[in-house]
Amino acid sequence: MALPRLTLATIVATVGPASESVDALQKLIETGVGVFRLNFSHGTLADHALRLNAIREAAARARLPIAVLGDLCGPKIRVGRVPDPGIELQSGQDVLMDPQATEARAASGTDSICVLPCSLASIARDVAPGHRVLINDGNIRMLSLGLDALGSGEVLRCRVTTGGLVTSRKGLNLPDSKLSVPAITSEDWAAVEWAVEHSLDFLALSFVRSADEVRELQARLEVLCTQGRTGDHSGESKR
User: Fold this and answer.
1) How many CA atoms within 13 Å lie on the side-chain side of 166?
2) DSSP bridge pairs for 210
3) Nearest alpha carbon to residue 81 among 117, 124, 114, 123
């Protein structure tokens, strides 16, 4: 029989293909994991339902109160398609971030400028000169030089401060910029409803820019949880 644990801190472990079996989850609990994270950026809600069931079975076997945290995606801003094996950016090099591009174009010949596609249509307007533009969890770092033009479209010109290899679909982080996209997307709202229906313990909100975004999520949770207690779903529209 497992002994109760009193801790002021805990280990949070993300559940994925390598750790989603009941046996693997139970071993993680035995080594000190107290919260399991479901990353809504990867997999379907059906996938997460299977993982949630496995977590609860492992917790029941261990006879310990294990929490489950749902991590909302937030707006997904990524680099677009980059030809294999990727493009190596060098410090001091200029890069154009182009939402209209279908594929990256490396610098060649006398043209020292690289063009990278990105998923944020408003990037040239949202990112001011001097703002940081980070790729792949900040392993590649650039500074915005501001709005530029390429063909018939507007692009963001950046200068590389820390180079590295850029490959397809790497995350793009804009920590200094106020983006014109919502912090909570329609996909996130669907995940919020799923989390309430399946009684998750915590929700994490990504890319928070203001307290109002947290309050918006809290207000929605209050409505959903109240509906769950009363069973009254009348008059409430889906987000």
Assistant:
1) 33
2) none
3) 117
Strand positions, DSSP E, the chain: 11-14, 33-39, 67-71, 87-89, 94-98, 114-117, 132-135, 140-150, 153-162, 164-166, 172-173, 202-204
Q: How far apart are CA 214 and CA 217, in angstroms?
A: 5
The torsion defined by the Cα of 74, 38, 135 and 171, in degrees rounded to 10, comes to -60
- C-alpha dist (Å) from residue 222 to 38, 133, 167, 203, 207: 21, 36, 41, 13, 21
User: What is the rounded distance in angstroms from the CA atom of residue 157 to the CA atom of residue 86?
Assistant: 20
Confidence at residue 38, expressed as pLDDT on a 0 to 100 scale: 98
The phi and psi torsions of 21 (rounded to 5 degrees) equal: -75, 155
User: What does the radius of gyration of the chain's CA atoms come to, in whole angstroms?
Assistant: 22
Percent of the chain with pLDDT over 70: 90
CA–CA distance, 61 with 58 (Å, rounded to integer):
5
